[in-house]
Each structure stands twice: as structure tokens, then as C-alpha cells.
Amino acid sequence: MPKITEIFFDCDNTLVLSEELAFEACADLANEILEKQDITVRYTGDQLIQDFVGQNFRGMMVSLQAKFKFELSKEELEGYVKKEEDKVIAKLLEKAQPCVGASEQLEKLFEEKKYDLAVVSSSALRRVRASIQKVGQDKYFDYDMVFSAATSLPKPTSKPDPAIYLHALEACGKKAEETVTVEDSVSGALSAIRANIAVIGYVGSYHGEEKQAEMAQRLTDLGARVIMKHWNEFPKCLKEIEGRAISPAL
């Protein structure tokens, strides 16, 4: 079996605590859209997270249209996507913080030079770059090793579609079995699993032990190989996956 040579990382709430900031901005726009459609439902950022965590704004708007049975024109949707990107980036550049312990593990990996490193996100490339730059993580990734389902593909999509992981594998010149990824959401984990990539399920950015336990179970049920509650567990989690990857019994 091939050994692990590449580590992918989701960005939002995996490397950078960005989801709550992003969903605050998304809620404002979602409510504006719903009001224009004469739909009385209104969202808070927290409610949007519950319904749509792991999806980018484009994916969220597709789901919203299906849920409330209305249709935006392509031009309207693109206008809102651009507006959301600007609003979210402004919030991130003002307030974003790294996930606890993530930067320390990235620094160790970067200094060891044992693995190639890349970011694989659903979010727009400008947003991902703004996030990792704000928290000082951009120095750990080559500029062209940051991939976005919203921006990097010929046809924009969102996790759980595996397209962005398949694209990242091709761009990095890797096979799925040489790769591990860290994901915090159901849609992200599904995207990687559908691309046959081993998943470390990270639950440390969820609030409260009950929510962490619930997400750990959901990610395990999907097929995540191992669950990580804090980034200081990363070396142990990686070693566990590498042990399985090289085991002749598998």
C-alpha cells in the first residue's frame, strides 16, 4: 500500500474559526432574498449554520431555493454570491482567529517537510486566502496549493460533491490512498470520502461536549477513519491512519 505523502485541510472551522463570522453575513443576505420573495421566514447566523454548515454560499442558495420553492435568475445568484464574498471577507479580515492548536501543528508539519500540504475548501478562493492570511497560516501553503470548489473548478460547485478533492488530487499529482484530509462537517467529510480519501474528523470547533459527541458520531458513521477533538491529537490521529494504510491486512 502507498504511504501517506499529502495532507489536505478544510479551512472553515478546521484551520480558521470563520463559520460564525461568515454565517452572520450570509444571514443578512439570505433574509434579504427571502423578503424579496415574500417569504416570511428569517434566519439568524446560528440557524443557517444548523441547516447549511459545510456548504458554500452558492450551495446554500441552491438549497434555500429548493426548500422554499422559488428560483433566482443566474444573474441574481451571481450578484448575491459576489456581495456575500465581499461581506464575509470584510468580517474575516477584522475578526478571524485560528482554530486552537491548528497553527502549531501546521508549523511542525511545515518544518518536518515530510508531507506536502494543501487547503481544500468549498469557500471562494479570495475568502480562503483572506482567512489563512489573517491568522498567519498562509506561509505553510504554496500559493497554488489552495483549492476552492467555488473558484478553482471549471463549473463552480460545493462539498459534498467530490469534484474539488478530485481536482486537488490531480493538481498535486497524488493518488487518493497517498492522502489524508481533515474535515469538520458532514458535507466536507462526504466530499473526501466520495473521492476515496481518508478523513480525520475534527470536532473541536463545535460548542459543548454534547454537540462534539453528536458530530463525532455522525462523522464516524459516514466513514471518517478517526476523530480529533483538539489539534494536539493530530500526530496520533495521523499515525493511526498511516498504520492502517500500510497494514497488509487492509
TrEMBL record:
<keyword id="KW-0119">Carbohydrate metabolism</keyword>
<dbReference type="InterPro" id="IPR041492">
    <property type="entry name" value="HAD_2"/>
</dbReference>
<dbReference type="InterPro" id="IPR023214">
    <property type="entry name" value="HAD_sf"/>
</dbReference>
<dbReference type="InterPro" id="IPR023198">
    <property type="entry name" value="PGP-like_dom2"/>
</dbReference>
<dbReference type="InterPro" id="IPR006439">
    <property type="entry name" value="HAD-SF_hydro_IA"/>
</dbReference>
<keyword id="KW-0479">Metal-binding</keyword>
<protein>
    <submittedName>
        <fullName>HAD-like domain-containing protein</fullName>
    </submittedName>
</protein>
<dbReference type="InterPro" id="IPR036412">
    <property type="entry name" value="HAD-like_sf"/>
</dbReference>
<dbReference type="Pfam" id="PF13419">
    <property type="entry name" value="HAD_2"/>
</dbReference>
<dbReference type="InterPro" id="IPR051600">
    <property type="entry name" value="Beta-PGM-like"/>
</dbReference>
<keyword id="KW-0460">Magnesium</keyword>
